[in-house]
Amino acid sequence: xxxxxxxxxxxxxxVRFYMVAMLFILFDVEAVFMMPWAVIYRQLPKITGSVMFxxxxxxxxxxxxxxxxxxxxKKGILDWAMDRGDL
Length: 87
Description:
The protein has helices spanning 15-39, 44-48, 53-75. It is an all-alpha fold. The chain has one domain.
């Protein structure tokens, strides 16, 4: 039933494909965590009692995400031109 298989059924994929997929999930989850904050940003001064608390909270959060992104760029994970095997 169907089309007969040609060649080996167990093809190999580079680890980079999996790394990019995991990074996509990581940054997608980061966007999901930012959404509730953005929805209640105007009410944050009433909730926390501080006008700038919500701003600094998100700035620290984005700082952690930026550190992770700079680490990824420094390691060359997103640089597809370099051929370093499978990392």
